[in-house]
Amino acid sequence: MTGPKTSGDKVPIQPFFDDLKKHLKTTTIGSLKANKTPKQVHAVADTAMDAFATSAAGLEKLVPPEKPLACKKGCAHCCHLAVMTDGATVLRIAEHVRTSMNQAERMLLDMRLIVYEDKVEKMTQSQRSMARIPCPLLVDGACSVHEVRPLICRAFNSYDAEICDQKIRGGGSTSEIPSWNVPWLLGLALDAGLKEALVESGYKDGDIELGLALKQALDHPHADERWLAGDRIFSRTAWKARKP
Ligand code: SF4
Fold first, then answer.
1. In this predicted model, what pLDDT tens digit does every residue of 176-198 receive, in sequence order?
2. Residue 180 Cα to ligand 1 middle (Å)
3. Which end of the chain is more exposed for a tag (fewer CB within 10 A), N or C?
4. Of all atoms in ligand 1, which is nearest to the CA of residue 145?
5. Which of 75, 83, 139 has most ligand 1 atoms within 8 Å of its beta carbon, as the pocket-test mutant?
6. In total, how many domains does the chain have?
7. For the residues 7-33, what does the mean pLDDT come to?
8. 110: in domain
9. In 3D, which of 140, 139, 134 has the Cα closest to residue 168?
10. Separation of 2 CA from ligand 1 center, angstroms?
């Protein structure tokens, strides 16, 4: 996903995002240093997701959207774009999948992940960014892991679903979608803070592709422990390292 068009700030909010990024980075590094366990990795991802929810709610009062957003359950144009995320978030989503889905839901997800990997694995980054492929976590037009969806999915928003349809389904640029800048800037700040903290803590996955990485996390027994031990289980899913 790349950012939609955002309107100008009425109040200067960038310093707040810079501080938030710095704060998340510092606390994440501290958390992972103190305790290298799967539970801690999941907690690190949860902290970033909670920071998004809390900050978005506070900022909505300060810098409200110009008009109601078009985003609602069942509208999933943006869930056909590539989602780039990080290792902690993928491991958190994998844990959610393991603990919340029943056998039938899990079987269907596994099948969607196989089909997705088959389609996407050989693509270059630019081919994937132009392709419109449903996220394997999309079920009946809704996100099946809504509580733990990546920051970038939380950030994406639009004032106009018809423009999303034209630009996303039609293969156009998402930068032309009119949107509320607050969630977008917030998501970018927290995403960067979390990723920088993971790199500084020794987990150098880079930007990893959600669908491909989730398959790796679910396929690997003890994926969390292996990732914590430095096993680069997501190496095939980071665009920069990939050689399709
Ligand atoms: S994780 Fe959820 S919100 Fe994000 S693209 Fe996939 S289905 Fe959509």
1. 899 999 999 999 999 999 999 99
2. 19
3. C
4. 2
5. 83
6. 1
7. 87
8. yes
9. 134
10. 14
**What is residue 240's predicted lDDT score, i.e. its pLDDT?**
56
Task: Decide if 76 is inside a domain.
Answer: yes
Q: Ligand 1 site: residues with CB under 6 angstroms? A: 79, 83, 135, 137-138, 143, 145, 149-150, 153
The more confidently predicted of residues 134 and 1 is 134
Ligand 1 atom closest to Cα of residue 1? 5
Residue 3 has pLDDT above 80, yes or no: no
Asked if pLDDT for residue 243 goes beyond 60, the answer is no
Residue 159 maps to a domain: yes
Q: 132 alpha carbon to ligand 1 midpoint, in Å?
A: 13
pLDDT for 133 beyond 50: yes
Distance 8 CA to ligand 1 centre (A): 27
Q: What range does the domain containing 68 cover?
A: 13-241
